[in-house]
Amino acid sequence: SRLIFVRDWDVDIVGQWERAGNDMAILSTYNTNLEEDDIDQATGKNTRFERPVLCDASFEGDGARGRMRLRHPKWRQPYVSAPGKVGMAHSPQLQPFWSSEFAFSRGHFVLAVPYDPWLPIVEQDDEEISMAVRAFTYGYDFYAPERLISFQVEDPVDFFEGNATSFPGKQSSSLDRLFGLVGMNPEIDSTSWDHRDEELYGVGKVREASKFFTLFGIHVKERVAEQKLCDFVTSGHMQSIFIKNLRADGMGIDYSEIHFRFHELIRIHDFG
């Protein structure tokens, strides 16, 4: 798809990232289709004061060979206006997940968490979950930007999944590796999937992957994700609780000091 950028987009996104005050911040969201009045024709600035916040995920699939896969589809993510909510005025907003469509961070991210080249025929939705878990374990934190700096202009596209039948078994073996590297297919024999370059393309040592699952109500063995996580995220309560543990040197949130387990029976007012 083509993207149209607002005027001074580069200055804008750098300023947003700096306001997070977190060297490990990754500003990430999904691209939004351009509507008629989204960009002011005189100033070239964004006039749309909402953006997708990545928080709505669930397990999908038929369950065969562990194929109930955690995903956060683009169409399910809520559009939220910002800033101004509790704990995040004039700042990007903490969120649980990462999008491959838009991600802005310091360059060390692509060195620490490089794309895995041993995953042919893997879909975007699956890779996004893998990258989120990997980046979390390396100490990175995900934020929705304060506002969009680009919009999508729809073009006809061909999807590579159409070639999957030409490479039988490749997608299945890739998914075994992808989820195996982040500990999301414990029912599959670990000797059955490709472990090449596991230290480079696997999890980091700053945080445990299990902490990610606990924080955001993801039950890997049961293939269940707690619902209503978006209430916790979009209300700003995730931000107000977690940001208190941002390290003094700005090198990420110290989750060793956060003893929190999300479940859908939590009442948001309990955090007030």
Describe the protein in words.
The protein contains 8 helices and 12 strands. The protein has 272 residues and is α+β, with helices and mostly antiparallel strands. Strands 7-9-2-8 form a 4-stranded mixed β-sheet, with helices on both faces. A hairpin with a 4-residue loop joins β11 (218-219) and β12. The protein is globular.
Summarize the structure in short:
The protein is built from 8 helices and 12 strands. It has 272 residues and is α+β, with helices and mostly antiparallel strands.
What layout of secondary structure does this protein have?
Elements: E1 2-5, H1 9-19, E2 25-29, E3 50-52, E4 58-60, E5 69-71, E6 79-81, E7 93-95, E8 102-104, H2 108-112, H3 124-137, E9 141-144, E10 150-153, H4 170-181, H5 198-201, H6 209-215, E11 218-219, E12 224-225, H7 229-234, H8 237-242
Parallel strand pairs: 2-9
Antiparallel strand pairs: 1-10, 2-8, 3-6, 4-5, 7-9, 11-12
- Which parts are unreliable, with pLDDT below 50 for 5 consecutive residues or more? 268-272
- Count of helical stretches: 8
Report Rg. 19 Å
N- and C-termini, Cα separation: 41 Å
Number of strands: 12
Element-level helix/strand string:
EHEEEEEEEHHEEHHHEEHH
Main sheet? 4 strands, mixed
* Coarse shape: globular
